[in-house]
Design a protein that fits this description.
The protein folds into 3 domains: 218 residues, GroEL-like equatorial domain (GROEL, domain 1, Orthogonal Bundle); 80 residues, GROEL, domain 2; 162 residues, 3-Layer(bba) Sandwich (GroEL). 52% of the residues lie in helices and 18% in strands. The strands form 8 sheets. It has a 4-stranded antiparallel beta sheet with strand order 6-15-14-7, with helices on one face. The chain is elongated, with a radius of gyration of 27 Å.
Length: 507
């Protein structure tokens, strides 16, 4: 059975659910934002002020509402996936754009024309944000991380570790078994632990294999005969052999496991699940580590565990040459995705890789603190694109400067004011008075809610990543625009056929 929702009924549903998410999430924005208790079927209840976690947990038993909620949440989830922060800002912007856009449509404005104008207005804002951005200093990074985590100590720990690893983006955040936070710089080239079978670990936490040979195939291995010459050579020379391929058949895996009758496996099978550029990048880097220009050579050491496989190569001219090649490619690369890939490869080959272990008294505390660490690290990563003053000030300044030529400009102008307003509301502060002071100072000061002080651009610790502000606005306006141009919603209600089937069976 299909239900079609349209007209005023649809608008009411959209408005109700946009407000539902926003009213729940926006109370968390800013340093004085509140917490929310989240309870799901799969885990115990926990307390958080992480916007994306809260938004993702909101659901409804009503099919129509739940469909709309999923669409709204997409904006927050995309911002989080793209930059790891700014989810609450996204929701605040989305609510303002949608509700004010809906007023225009109810007054007769064409929805498609309005969406087009909103897209054009957002482009103007992004251009202005680009002009306002600055290069982040080390101090800026620490302030940014501290704000994202809402914790100075977390910000300091993450920033210092990030700088120690030469601004590597190969940092993992993991829960610790202890009360204290600590970091670990790891040596070697890491990939995810894609062992063809967990039994290669021999029921151990990790296994270290010294001086193994590494054999790389750029295909699937379905027959042991393809490996026979290499396996026999390893057995005869009493050496270990690592074999990497796209995948292995069950038969090959079982036959290899039968060969490994000691505590240290003689033969280890590793899946290379990557594809395209990533796949060949791993192969290229591993060739450099074994110091050869083909797919068979010797490593100094390999460490297997349930999370990672660590390859430690031998210093060689080939490895050094590869490192220098990557440095040159980084200088000339302009595509952001490719640049990130090259930097990650370089940091791995130069051993700039580490883990931050997050401590806490309870599982719930560690989980909540890990979210803070994740946000802080994401904020640092995103700062490579430039930083801006925080507290909603860049939006506020552009809102004041924005020339109103269309209805959409008016809508975006109001939306840009909303994060600043909400941050102050969460601290029970009268925003018009604060706004007047900031405007009188040409938007070169920020109001520090924590300290209850005004701070200049040069001295403030209240900053934001430009990338976060840009992505939040893009994703908010995109989802709001789609909702505003939606005229019908179709719900397919599943029909149970059991009774009907039984009736026919009896005939």
């Amino acid at each position: 059975m299909k239900s079609v929702i349209k007209g005023e009924e649809l608008y009411n549903y959209l408005e109700e659910n946009v407000k539902l998410i926003s009213d729940t999430v926006k109370t968390t924005i800013g340093p004085r934002g509140s917490n929310v208790i989240v309870s799901t079927m799969n885990m115990p209840p926990f307390i958080t002020n992480d916007g994306v976690t809260i938004a993702d947990a909101i659901a409804s038993s009503d099919g129509v509402s739940n469909t709309i909620l999923i669409l709204i949440k997409e904006a927050a989830l995309k911002t989080n996936n793209d930059v790891g922060d700014g989810t609450t800002t996204t929701i605040v912007l989305l609510e303002s754009i949608f509700l004010n856009g809906l007023k225009e449509i109810k007054n007769g404005y064409n929805p498609l024309k309005l969406k087009q104008e909103i897209d054009e207005s957002v482009k103007k804002v992004i251009d202005l944000l680009d002009k306002e951005s600055m290069i982040a200093s080390d101090k800026n990074l620490m302030n940014l991380a501290s704000i994202s985590a809402n914790d100075t100590e977390i910000g300091k720990l993450i920033t210092e570790f990030y700088l120690k690893l030469k601004k590597s983006k190969n940092i993992k955040i993991m829960e610790s078994d202890t009360l204290e936070d600590h970091t670990e710089k790891l040596l070697g080239y890491f990939i995810d632990s894609n062992l063809a079978s967990p039994y290669f670990l021999k029921n151990k936490e990790n296994i270290t294999i010294n001086n193994p040979n590494l054999l790389i195939f750029e295909k699937c291995i379905n027959d042991l005969e393809e490996l026979a010459i290499y396996i026999n050579d390893a057995i005869n020379k009493n050496t270990s052999l690592l074999i990497m391929a796209d995948s292995f058949s069950d038969q090959v895996i079982n036959e290899i496991l039968a060969i490994n009758d000691s505590d240290i496996p003689k033969i280890v099978l590793i899946n290379n699940f990557e594809y395209g550029t990533n796949k060949f990048a791993i192969i290229d880097d591993l060739q450099a580590l074994i110091g050869v220009n083909n797919n068979y050579g010797t490593l100094k050491k390999v460490i297997l565990d349930k999370n990672n496989i660590t390859f430690i190569g031998n210093n060689s001219n080939i490895l050094n040459r590869k490192i220098n090649e990557l440095k040159e490619e980084i200088k000339n690369e302009t595509i952001e995705y490719e640049l990130d890939l090259l930097k990650n490869r370089l940091s791995k080959l130069e051993n700039n890789y580490g883990i931050i272990y997050v401590g806490g008294n309870t599982t719930l505390e560690r989980r909540e603190r890990k979210m803070r660490f994740d946000d802080a690290l994401s904020a640092i990563y995103s700062a490579s694109d430039g930083i801006l003053m925080g507290g909603g000030i860049p939006y506020l300044k552009i809102s004041d400067e924005l020339n109103i030529t269309t209805s959409a400009d008016k809508i975006i102008k109001k939306a840009l004011y909303s994060p600043f307003k909400q941050i102050l509301e969460n601290n029970a502060i009268n925003s018009p008075e604060i706004y007047k002071y900031i405007k009188d100072n040409d938007f070169n000061v920020v109001y520090n809610v924590k300290n209850n002080t005004f701070e200049t651009r040069e001295e403030t610790s209240v900053i934001d990543s430009k990338k976060v502000l840009v992505e939040a606005l893009i994703n908010a306006s995109s989802i709001a625009g789609m909702l505003l141009t939606t005229t019908h919603l179709i719900i397919n209600e599943e029909k149970k056929f059991t009774n009907s089937f039984n009736e026919f069976s009896e005939l």
